[in-house]
Amino acid sequence: MIDDDGNRAARVEDVHELALAMPHVTVEHGTGGNPIYQVGGKSFVFFRNPRPDAADPDTGERYADVIVFWVESPADKQALVQDETSPFFTTPHFDGHPSVLLRASRIGELTRDELAEVVQDAWLSRASARRATAWLRAHPPR
Question: For every one of its 142 residues, what pLDDT tens digit does the chain have, with 9 covering 90 and above?
């Protein structure tokens, strides 16, 4: 799944490519036409419409570039959002929800490899046990 340029800065196009590379993925479109990547009818990555809970703290302008990634557990979520320098964040709207947010404008702070891991983990958190087991068997951890 990871190509030779896995250490380059991640791009928004990589989210689409990586999500579509996972097995059994379908794409729906939200109210604003934003893509919603699903496995077995369950979303695992989606591009969110601007909402009041994710806005610039100085101007109040809603972020129009938020990407949502599912995570496996509250501990996984905490690991991604606890470091204030991390590009991942959450909002009170997502309290108790197994997901993290990432602004597309900050995606380049991740490498393509790091983004691939986040997308794959999102898929694994939502795929059926059978599909997840099959994928993990074919892609053992390095």
Answer: 444 577 999 999 999 999 999 999 999 998 889 999 999 999 999 999 999 999 998 999 999 999 999 999 999 999 999 988 999 999 999 999 999 999 999 999 999 999 999 999 999 999 999 999 999 999 987 6
Please indicate, yes or no, if residue 36 is contained in any of the structural domains. yes
The rounded distance, in Å, linking the Cα atoms of 33 and 54 is 19
Judge whether 136 lies within some domain: no
Q: How many domains does the chain have?
A: 1
- Domain harbouring 49, CATH code: 3.90.1150.30
Q: Does the global pTM surpass 0.85?
A: yes
Phi, psi for residue 67 in degrees, rounded to 5: -115, 135
C-alpha 5: how far from chain center: 20
Per the domain annotation, does 137 fall within a domain? no
CA-nearest of 51, 52, 34 to 43 is: 34
- Residue 139 resides in a domain: no
